[in-house]
Protein 1
Amino acid sequence: MNTRSSQDCPCCGTVAELFFDGGQLPVNSTTLMRSRPAALAEPRGRLRLCVCPGCGFLFNSAFDPARIRMDTDLEETQGFSPTFVRFHEALAADLVRRHRLRGRRIVEIGCGKGEFLALLARMAMGSGHGFDPAFVPGRAGPGQDRIRVEPILFGSAEADRVRGDLFVCKMTLEHIQYPPDFLDLIGRAARASGNAPLVLMVPETLVILDRLQVWDLYYEHCSNFTPGSLARLFRAHGLAPTVLRTAFDGHYLIIEAMPDAAGAITALDLPEEKPQQVVDAARRFGDAARLRLDGWRDRMERWGQAGRKVVLWGSGSRATALANMVGLDDRVQAVVDINPHRRGSYVAGTGHPVVGPADLAEIRPDVVVVMNPVYRDEIAALLRQQGLSPVLEAV
Ligand SMILES: [Zn+2]
């Protein structure tokens, strides 16, 4: 039984401050909704974001892990975008080179469909051992013959039995309600593997707050980190950070650490902000977020009144958040995604249909709202190929 009160920080126990109430949002924003009724019936949970003045950690105090489904319908991959694939390849090549992974064993916790693990194993000419309940065999791409994935969560038994030369955990820690417990598990496995390095990647929340990216906050992202709060948590659990940096236009925060601090380089690339800086940023965000959402509501209203056809591009969590927080209804015709596995599905909570780029020839949108500006050029090129020239608006 959890005895912590809802506003105590899960990382350090300090009483935290509520700064943003995002209302009721779908609890599983990346799960594929196979029908419109199922999408509309998706359970909702409250996004109640708190910031900790003790360590700078941000968390959803209304989060209930029992409501999250972890199954193969989770469609989180971004591997269909050339921009994302280039990012992944550069990240893998850098890790293989710096950690001298040639012929080595790589462990990835929360490996999704296994694409990154297969890429690492292939580049290293080594092997990969992955863990993910949402794993689907056969979708890891080149190098998948070098990996073995167990479709389970990484728990205490796994920490005791799994050994590797590098432990990777990308886009997973933000889904864990009590990050310290999870970090202890990975740290234990890395320590037992002979001081193997760890690499973790999470969304960079200070950037989300500063850029007012309201749609990057989700119910299921119960744990949100900034550079300082992540580095502090690692140190508090006996893990010495050796690399702290952002990537992908500031969206991702990457930390590398060693279980044994001896010899670890402690001069990091990224400044570690103080907890009070996060509190200040969170308060500013809380004040401005509502205005930002109202601005999008007004814009959609104006486009609707002018009879303009609007589509969103990108059907992941961001589109789900925007559609639900703004309440888009029939002001948006459809949501476009280049991932063919998402086509024919529906946006959780609002029921907008997910279509492929080829379907736009028929819809002929006047406005395309780009959910991630990083993909703007890629999207513009795809639209040009189809002879379409809608207005592109990035969120
Ligand atoms: Zn804290």
Note: The two ends are 41 Å apart (CA to CA).
Protein 2
Amino acid sequence: MKTEYDFFMIERVHLKDKNIFPFQIYVFNPIHKKYSMFLNGNRPLTKELDSFLTFLVERGGKIAVLKKQRRTFLTSQDFHESEIPSLKSRELHELEKERIMNLKFKEMYDEKNGVFSFQSEFEIACDTDNFEKIIEFARIEILTFSVTQSHTISLALHLTKTHLNKDNYLNRIVATSYLFAKTANILDPVALSDIICGAYLSHIGYTQLPLSLLRIPVLSLTEKDKKLFEKHTILGNHLIKKSQLDLTDRCKKIILDHHERINGGGYPSMKYGESIEILSLIVGSIAHLFEFSSGKINGSKLPVKSIIINMKNKTFSPGLEFDFGEKVYNSLVTLINTDKIEEKKAA
Ligand SMILES: [Fe+2]
């Protein structure tokens, strides 16, 4: 379907007194926001059609020509593009200029570093406990997103620009969630921005909990404190609502549902199966991986690689979760080459 980006607008006077044109003429209907073909190329604009065109224009219709026929239009109507207001190049916004620079930077980065393999870089990052390259790659890529598409993309760009610049706990979750989503074939910048904003904001509810509570591993909390801790999802959702931050519903769901699990054993709503968005499961699984690794769940630190092996082998250990749904689970356990590690162990 053709969109506004495919057309430029002209006025009736730009058709002059001619009645045959080598380009197609479209009319934009402002009520239905649709472009319809009005006159095919090299077909006569009869008196009846001309009157009908005037009728449509008087009622708010706009005459449009395809951008790909711009040259044909200018030559046949003998205009310079500076004489057609919709063809005048507008001054780019600062953010758009920045994006053009970021696109060039990404090109140079790719040229210098070659193809980025998330799986192998993730394995190196786990081995060296250094996620700088993963975070840097995610940052460079996210900064090429369009600045004019949606609020969530703009917020994802802002958060990336201001925060995704050093190797820390939260940035590991954000960058890994983003690149992990791409391995699950989620490539739409809107969905990826939901992931970025959701991952950054999923624990904003912590700010409403006593700090002492957050310093205790989840499995060591009393039943009462555990219930309070689990409220961070609802509190986060409430804060977002109160702030009136313009996020998509899917992004809000990530914040509310990142602890929901496919088997219905999660919280806060014990959602089950497909009622949980895959993006919530992605952020939930990656956050869980780093939470478990850092000892936030059971009080003992464990390398990310060992957690993935345990997940793959479904080795049950207190607090370790893997009910993220088949698609997320399968992508998660293939994040590193566990066969190679197990072969090494056996040797
Ligand atoms: Fe959480």
Note: The pocket of fe (ii) ion is lined by residues 202-203, 232, 258-259, 287 (CB under 6 Å).
Protein 3
Amino acid sequence: MRSFQVYNGGVKLFFGVNSLEEAAAYLRKYSRVLIITGRTSAKLSGALDDIIRILESSGVEYEVWSKALPNPTDELVAELVEVYRSGVFEGFIAIGGGSVIDLAKAARVVVAGGGSVREYLYGAREIPRTQPFLFAVNLTHGTGTEIDRYAVVTITETKEKLGFSPGYPDVSVDDPKYTASLPRRQTIYTSLDAFAHAVESATSAKASPYTEMLAEEAVKHVIEYLPRALEKPKELEYRYWLLYASMIAGIGIDHGVTHYGHAIEHVLTGSRPELAHGAGLAILYRELIKFFYEYSPVVMSRLLKPLDPSLKPIREDSAKAVKAYIDFLDKIGFRETLSDYGFTVGEVRELKALYFKLVEKRYESLLPFKLQWEQVESMLKNLV
Ligand SMILES: [Fe+2]
């Protein structure tokens, strides 16, 4: 398991077991930083203790703010900005999964550019070029936010879950040992998020041979190592490859973007913040794989070969591809449906307005093909 570094956009990423030690050189020049974490995982993974040890041995002062929540909201961003402004800090250290890192990305934009995060989400304010330092210690193998320029924030009042491009962390750490304590469900959800990043970045309107190559590699590793990691969660080699898959799929979406899976998932989690992002995607993919395969049989057959080597690059094999995906979900014990989160057939009908706002308008230039609302509605009803 080799350690190495990757540069993407503006971020320098340190990958590998104990890679935090090497990345720590970037922290030593600061005198005071704000550490952002969720409630438990930073402590449980050992990453928070490691960071504190490094800061204390280097004489860097710090404060810990551990109020980050899954699916960060505009209100939480505002709260964090207040804390940052009141403490004379030079930068952020975000220790967590996608939600924690995204929260830090969003807050530093507001710290640097003023206004409210809503204005940036709606594109009414320019993202400031110069922002406080952000050092991200990633604790999950799913979102890719440690290496990409995106963040997702939900506006509580309107239930809009919106992605935007606040920019890259300055330095990121992907150390598999910090993902070994991920609970079983999070292991599944985050890996299937990475799977979705790979598939969407290879089939979007901005897909390229580069994103297809990254996707093929990422999907292969998720399929091979997710079942193994579920059997032996502490085995670092399995976590290493899942984290690698998630990181390169993150580069994939940075270059090839996401589309229908993420767009529709944002409609669902906007109204059900308790629905984990990866779980929402995994549920949707039971239906979406068919459309993706029919749109791009050549790419999709290549990606899904590890699930079913007999898949041919023809549209007619889309049902076979769906079966291969559902069999994989069965194998890893993922059987959730939209009803598990309280969605009803009647409620699906009411999502139409949000669908137009969040999918058709916001993702317009990124959608590779056109799904009619009626198709989406029947798809969602099948998933209830
Ligand atoms: Fe995602």
Note: The CA atoms of residues 3 and 16 lie 4 Å apart.
